[in-house]
Structure formats: structure tokens, C-alpha cells
Write a structure and sequence with these properties.
The protein has 200 residues and is α+β, with helices and mostly antiparallel strands. The chain has 2 domains: 76 residues, Alpha-Beta Plaits, CATH 3.30.70.580; 92 residues, Alpha-L RNA-binding motif (Alpha-Beta Plaits, 2-Layer Sandwich). Helix content is 12%, strand content 28%. Strands 1, 2, 3, 4, 7, 8, 9, 10 and 11 form a 9-stranded mixed beta sheet that branches. Strand 9 and strand 10 form a beta hairpin. The two termini are 31 Å apart.
Length: 200
Amino acid sequence: MARLILFNKPFGVQSQFSGDRPEATLAGYVQVPGVYPAGRLDKDSEGLLVLTDDGRLQARIATPRFKLPKTYWVQVEGEPDEAALDRLRAGVTLKDGPTAPARVEAMAPPSLWPRDPPVRFRKSVPDSWLAITITEGRNRQVRRMTAAVGLPTLRLVRWAVGDWTLEDLEPGQWREVPTGSVAGAAKDRGRQGGKASYRR
């Protein structure tokens, strides 16, 4: 039976099990033999990382051709106007080519855990939050997309992969879920990797 784990990756942790000290890796949080990330989150990003020991399932989650949506909550510098949001929705041109259309909405600041270290703020510059859903998986794609429309990313949290979400997972915690559907069973708690109190 394949195993599927949802992990809330903290800021500063590498999306891999090995690494040179003092870099923090997944090995310090998920002691489950044989599982590997299905896709990645860069060191400076937080949120949902899916791990599995099934190679086919790993590919189905991570490979862009399956178009599994991934939703990010993104704190940006500045206040986006509709023109900037429309550019993101239509797709923007990056150095490695144009992005596919994205689902983008302005959102109220979410009730998230404090980031360590905290985001640096400038009193003279406002910030805003966006919910961005993409089906691609380029390196640092969301950060590059917001920068392309003049909205540098300050904080990036992946909230969902398909129907799986971060709900009830504090940073550094994980839970195991059934593998019957790649779409996920977001409300199934399965085996808990520790009690969490986080709510959306």
C-alpha cells in the first residue's frame, strides 16, 4: 500500500532529506522511511509539501502535464490594481517563456502562524495578499510572476495541492492520508503527525 503524507514545510527548510549542516532538511521532521517529495518548495517558501513512496503517484502529483492545481497565498509588496491581476490571470512572460493562465484573486490577510524570521516591512510601502492557483511547476514561478507585474513577493505559503490543504497542520507537522485519489481527501485526518490547532 502506497503512503501519502501532507507536510507543512516551515520557512528555511530544504525540500529534501539530505543536506549539508546547518541547513534544515525534511529529515528533521518526517521520520517515515521511503517517502520523497512530489514536487518542491524553495527554502524561502512555506506550506504544503506532499510526500509519497509511490513513484507513479509522485509523478502524477508533480508533473505539469497532469495539471494538478496548486494554490498559494502570497503576500506582496504594493497594492495590485485590476490591470496587474488581469496580467497574472492571462499569463506573464518570464525568461523561460510565457506562463499559463492562472487563477488570481485578492484576499484578506489570512490568519497564519508567525514566520521565523518575520517578514521585513517598510512603513512607507503597503502590502497585500493574493490567492494564486497555477498548474505549472517552474522554479520560483509564483515569485517571478508577481515580480513581473511590479509586486515583489514578501511571503509565500502553498495552501493546497489539488484538494489537499494545510488545514489543521502547524509548521513542521504532518498527517497521512489515503492514496485512493490524486485529487486528495482533504478532510480525512488519517494518522496524525501531532495535534495541530491551526484554522483557516
